[in-house]
Design a protein that fits this description.
108 residues, alpha+beta, two-stranded antiparallel sheet, 4 strands, flat
């Protein structure tokens, strides 16, 4: 990648652009287990506002967690065995909103 700088070459052979190597992240796909956090937050807020309009008070909001994993094993005829690998992770997949109906005593 060019830096915008120019360096002079030796023996008066002119100039050349200064470059540097740079590692850049390139998205190669879309995860099937990553939520849209902004939309998720908006949906929770809208649900809470709707419950409030209907006379409910939100007591607690808890997240629902799901998980994903994968593994492979490579066996060998070698008596020393083979090898394997695996991974696992969790992610937020939903929310539970617990609310109670407000009475006239609760609303002051």
């Amino acid at each position: 990648m060019e830096t915008g700088e120019v360096e002079k070459l030796s023996f008066g052979r002119g100039e050349r652009a200064v470059t540097r190597k740079e590692i850049q992240w390139i998205q190669t796909g879309v995860s099937d287990c990553v939520i849209d956090g902004t939309r998720f937050a908006r949906n929770i807020q809208a649900a809470i506002e709707e419950l409030n309009k209907e006379g409910y008070e939100v007591v607690i909001v808890t997240m629902t967690t799901s998980g994903q994993y994968d593994w492979r094993q490579k066996l060998s005829n070698n008596p020393a065995g083979g090898y394997g690998w695996g991974y696992g992770f969790s992610y937020t997949s939903g929310a539970n909103i617990i609310a109670k109906r407000m009475t006239t005593k609760d609303v002051s």
